[in-house]
Amino acid sequence: MAGGELDVSESKKWLSIESMVEAAEAHRAAGERIVFTNGCFDLLHAGHVRYLSAARAEGDLLVVGLNSDASVKRIKAPGRPVVPETQRAEVLSALACVDYVIIFDEPDPGDLIRQIAPDVLVKGADWSEDRIIGADTVKACGGKVVRVPLVPEVSTSALIRRIIERFC
After folding, report:
1. Smallest Cα–Cα separation from 36: which of 120, 126, 94?
2. What is the pLDDT of residues 66-111, one digit of tens each?
3. Which of 13, 62, 97, 154 is 20 to 30 A from 118, alpha carbon to alpha carbon?
4. The CATH number of the domain where 44 resides is what?
5. Which residues pair with 102 in a beta bridge?
6. What is the pTM of this model?
7. Each residue of 29-73: pLDDT tens digit?
């Protein structure tokens, strides 16, 4: 593959939505609790790692919905993402706490959440529960929503600002 990018077929963690739905059904049949979270995860940092580890601790496996490049361009500042989706997926897939990664193009993960039907939905504490997409779906199926505290002053935007201040 050009540019040293990971081919989807090379990763057992990086799945299509169809494959993820099948995997979720198998894990659920085995009695495992499925945790779902989503985000851009551009310039992975300690805050992301702590967040993902906390999410994984809520169940038996962690599914990460990763915003595609096109999706990030629609919801973030100009010039984002800094890291292309294939590289972001590869880095997330390398983390022991992440069991599956799915790249999605939609503006929000609502459809993914409906199809995967996780037992636990995790978002950062900066999101109020009434603004968490999929919270109603998960709770209606008997699941729960968990809000994980953020690491103070650790964010991709802050990291980008520091890089600009120091090197530009």
Report:
1. 120
2. 999 999 999 887 888 999 999 999 999 999 999 999 999 998 999 9
3. 154
4. 3.40.50.620
5. 65
6. 0.90
7. 999 999 999 999 999 999 999 999 999 999 999 999 999 999 999
**Both structure tokens of 45:** 């940092």
Domain that holds residue 94: 2-167
Indicate the number of domains in the chain: 1
- The whole-angstrom separation of Cα 138 and Cα 116 is 10
CA distances from 106 to 72, 101, 148 (A): 10, 15, 24
Residues 82 and 42: their CA atoms lie apart, in Å, by 6
Task: Tell me: pLDDT of 9 over 70.
Answer: no
- Which residue in this structure is represented by tokens 């599956």? 100
Helix, strand, or coil (residue 5): coil
Element (DSSP H or E) covering residue 65: strand 61-67
Which residue in the block uniquely carries the two structure tokens 């530009």? 168
Provide the residue type at 93 as one letter. S
